[in-house]
Design a protein that fits this description.
It contains five helices and no strands. The longest helix is centred in the C-terminal third of the chain and has 34 residues, at 116-149. With 150 residues, the chain is mainly α. It is 89% helix and 0% strand.
Length: 150
C-alpha cells in the first residue's frame, strides 16, 4: 500500500463519517423538527446549530479532511481524477452548506416565536438545503470510492 493509498483511505473514512452524520441529520433530526410547531422548531434549531458548530467530532472530521488534502496532493497530485473530483466537491459542498445554512440559522434566531409563517418558510428552506447537502455528501463518497476502485 502506497502513502497515497493510505491517505485516500483516511480521507474516505473521515468523509464517510461526516456523510453519515449529514444523512442522519437530514433523515431523522429534520423529520423531528418538521413534526413540531414553529416555536419548538426555533428552539430545536438554535440548540442544533449551537451544538453542531462546536462539536469536537464534526470539527475533527472536517479538519482531518481539510488537512489530509495537503499530503494527498503532495504525494499524488491530480493522478486519481475520481478521488480528486470527490475532494473538490467536498470543498464546494462545504462552502454551499455554510452559505445556505448559516443565514437560515440567523434568520430563525432573529424571528419571534409567534412569526409562524416566516418560521415555516425557513423550515422549508432548511429542508431543501439539508436534502441538497445530503445528496452532495453521498456523491462525494461515491466519487472517492470509484477513485479507490479504478
Amino acid at each position: 500500500m502506497t502513502t497515497q493509498n493510505s491517505i485516500e483511505i483516511l480521507l474516505l473514512v473521515s468523509t464517510s463519517l461526516t456523510t453519515g452524520f449529514v444523512v442522519f441529520a437530514t433523515g431523522v433530526y429534520q423529520k423531528i423538527m418538521n413534526g413540531v410547531d414553529e416555536a419548538t422548531f426555533k428552539i430545536l434549531l438554535a440548540e442544533l446549530s449551537k451544538n453542531a458548530l462546536k462539536s469536537p467530532f464534526i470539527i475533527g472530521l472536517s479538519l482531518v479532511t481539510m488537512l489530509g488534502m495537503v499530503p494527498y496532493f503532495y504525494y499524488g497530485g491530480l493522478s486519481n481524477i475520481w478521488f480528486t473530483a470527490g475532494l473538490a466537491l467536498w470543498i464546494i459542498t462545504s462552502i454551499i452548506a455554510k452559505m445556505t445554512r448559516l443565514p437560515i440559522y440567523k434568520r430563525v434566531g432573529d424571528l419571534d416565536s409567534s412569526e409562524t409563517i416566516q418560521l415555516r418558510a425557513e423550515r422549508e428552506r432548511l429542508n431543501r438545503t439539508s436534502i441538497l447537502n445530503a445528496g452532495l455528501s453521498i456523491t462525494i463518497v461515491l466519487l472517492m470510492v470509484i477513485g479507490l476502485l479504478f
